[in-house]
Amino acid sequence: MSSLIKPLLIICCYVFFSLHAFAQLTISYPLPQLVIQRNQHNTAPLSIAGTFSVPVDRIEARLVPINSSTSRPTDWKVVQQTPRNGLYQGTITAPSGLFQLEVRGIRTNKTVSQATVSRVGIGEVFLIAGQSNAMGLPKLGAKGASDRVVSFNAWNRFWNKNNVLESSDKPFPVPMFSQLEANNLIFPTGETAWCWGELGDQIADRYHVPVAFFNVAIPATVAENWSATANGIPAKNIFNSTYWPFLQPYTNLRNALQYYHSSFGIRAILWHHGESDAVPLHTTKDDYCRLVQELIDHSRADFAADLTWVISRCSITPAGPVPNQAIRAAQDSLINRADNNVWAGPDTDTIQSPRPEHGHFENIPNGVQGVSVFARSWNNSLTDSFFDRSKPQQPRQFIQTGLVPTELSAGETLRVPFATIGFESSPDVSVQLLNDRGWYVMEVGQGQGFGPVEVHLPDTLSAGTYRLRVVAINPAMIVGNPTPAFRVTTPGKSGRFFVDQQTEQDSAFSYVYWLTTHEPSGSRFFVERQERSGSFQTIGQVEGIVDGQFSHLYSFAEPLDQSGSRIYRVRLELPDGSVQYSTPLILAVPDEALPQPLVYPNPSDGTSFTVQLPRSGTWTLSLTDLNGRMVWHQTHEVRADQPQTVWLPMGLADGLYILQCQWNNQRHSQRLLIRH
Predict the structure, then answer these.
(1) Is pLDDT of 17 > 80?
(2) Does 25-121 carry CATH code 2.60.40?
(3) What is the topology classification, in CATH, of domain 398-489?
(4) Average pLDDT, the chain
(5) Where is the signal peptide (predicted)?
(6) 122-389 topology per CATH
(7) Confidence of residue 18 (pLDDT cuts 50, 70, 90)
(8) Which of 89, 374, 544, 614 has its CA 20 to 30 A from that of 450?
């Protein structure tokens, strides 16, 4: 091997002295602000996964309470010993509460990499189901919750060609949790915080835990609609004689259980329903009881667990202002049936009776606060005994989708690896293509067992940014954590195999690391350093590793003969003769300022912007208005100099904002104009 400076090549064995600065690892799971269901012992299994781009002996994690006055940080716990090939995953037992998650990479008993997730919760998770008084409606006085209560602020409903609202049956997207504010949505169908924001705060006050809600309620549904669609039979809306498409309303309930609650757990399904069965349908006691029991049984079969249900007594409307004894008796029968794991919710027929003309609870200005009374009635029903004796379901399994090239072409076929936790038998799996926001696009592959799955990207796939996720579909439905985003280009282009690059320095050497995936057998890497003239000089060569694995972490060390900044890059020569280059790596002296992030377009249309950040790792982005009020913040795990779409919250007003991008102790600020 020829070079201007004799280098030391290191591939499998690492000996280091003190390092000037931390390199960064990434945390792809848990998602920011998620809540995992606690058990009766106030603990929950917390899966942690991500990538690392410098060698480590082990990955450790701890939880630091958001409110330090109530508890102390947990001890550091091992997530994974001797992780390989740039990927780590593991599960720790976490106490209840709201925390910042800290993850660190350890080498020779020293921290060499670290990352954080700003908010992770262990608390209570609920699914709401029923009719419009469970779904919630805007402009009726809903109150927002504190930051201890979260939802996925998105909607699985759309207007069809007949100007009627429908719900899709597509697989659910990767959720992005946020504080449940008054006018926020509760995915997939909930409108506004309704009573649930207030209920969440009341539970958080009682037990000092965070709370998350999902909502599958749909207006005008009767018990037969839920039972029929659970049995695969389309249901007719009794008010307009049209059929709900996509086997709604049950499809939303099943998808919520399988796509979300299998990962986050659940305390109970909160069922508020019965008004339309009372009037105009006049459903009998036996029929209502039978139909709702069929719904309960199907939900438990589809979730593969004995789900807890909580049923309210609910029957009055403006058209039927007198409580319907048949419906109420059926609800009592479901609650009192032996070994049915159904608990009593509130008696809502006594709230704001008679109802306003629109038929829903309402917080009337200077009048009856019906929505708030509804929240308190639910809180009173969910007693200490309920939380002590009910059967919460917790996540039992985890799937981490492996790395794929950062750039692929339409029409390409590749194999997607994945790793699992908690599987006792070999699963049947599907691979789903998601867009850059994590929403489902199409299925692109199927497989069986724990091996990699062959995936084909259609020739007609539009250029853009996508992700992939592996989903176990049998024997139980478990949704995998997706890949980092990758770009799809026009057919025929070669994939890009560099995932990340890092540098380190000690008193004797400069170290260059690069993480790759799917590079072809026979690939060769050449490390280059920029000379004062600006040209790059080759200083070493590393042969591609062929070991049956898909990702590899390579390393190169150069003796340090002078101080100051250095710029390295890695050249990849592929067997077909083509060449790729890594992002240039700046080895900076301690505390040297980072290059300015690139943000575009500016002005933004208020929905999103794209950012390219100069270092891999955890960045915190925030927007502050000209009055100094922070209106949005979010934590992102990013790759250096890779474009990343950042989605803004709905409802930001037009105007000038200050965007701050923070990495470790370095912060960059610039103006961002929003113009819808």
Answers:
(1) no
(2) yes
(3) Immunoglobulin-like (2.60.40)
(4) 91
(5) none
(6) Rossmann fold (3.40.50)
(7) very low
(8) 544
Spatial separation of the C-alpha atoms in residues 153 and 549, rounded to whole Å: 38
Strand 464-474 to 478-479 pairing: antiparallel
Strand partners, 622: 633, 660
Region class of 299: left (phi > 0), else alpha (psi between -120 and 50), else beta? alpha
Residue bearing the bigger pLDDT, 69 or 75:
75
Q: What is the mean pLDDT of residues 385-407?
A: 97
* 137: three-class secondary structure by DSSP: coil
What's the CA gap between 429 and 452, in Å, rounded? 10
CB neighbourhood size of 78 (10 A): 12
Banded model confidence at residue 564, pLDDT cuts 50, 70, 90 = low
- Cis status of the peptide bond prior to 354, with omega within 30 of 0: yes
- Pair 476, 262: CB distance under 8 Å: yes
What is the 3-class SS of 195-214, one letter each residue? Answer: CHHHHHHHHHHHHCCCEEEE
Q: What is the pLDDT of residues 483-522, one digit of tens each?
A: 999 999 988 888 999 999 988 888 889 999 999 999 999 9
Q: Do the domains 398-489 and 122-389 match in fold?
A: no
Q: Are 413 and 462 in contact (CB under 8 A)?
A: no
Domain definitions of the chain by residue range: 25-121, 122-389, 398-489, 498-587, 598-674
Q: Answer positive or negative: Cα dihedral of 329, 291, 196, 93.
A: positive
Greatest distance between any 2 Cα atoms in the chain: 92
CB within 8 Å of 262: residues ≥ 6 apart: 303, 395, 397, 476, 477, 478, 479
pLDDT computed for residue 22 by the predictor: 41
Residue labelled with tokens 């934590």: 635
In the chain, % helix, strand, coil (3-state, to 5) comes to: 15, 40, 45
Q: Could you identify the residue written with the tokens 């993480």? A: 515
Residue with the bigger pLDDT between 531 and 6: it is 531
Helix and strand counts by DSSP (H, E) for the chain: 10, 43
The β-bridge partners of 443 are 432
CA–CA gap between residue 459 and residue 471 (Å, rounded): 23
Tokens representing 368? 């009856």
Range 356-381 average pLDDT = 97
Give the 3-state DSSP-derived string for 159-193, with helices as H, strands as E and coil as C: ECCCCCEECCCCCCCCCCEEECCCCCCECECECCC
| Model confidence pLDDT, tens digit, residues 253-262 | 999 999 999 9
Q: How confident is the model at residue 171 (pLDDT cuts 50, 70, 90)?
A: very high
444-483 in b/e burial notation, b at 16+ Cβ within 10 A?
Answer: bbebeeeebbebebeeebeeebbbbbbbbeeebbbbbbbb
**Superfamily of domain 498-587, CATH level 4:** Immunoglobulins (2.60.40.10)
Structure tokens at 508: 């004797």
Whole-angstrom distance, CA of residue 24 vs CA of residue 53: 7
Report the alpha-carbon distance of residue 465 to residue 470 in Å, rounded.
18
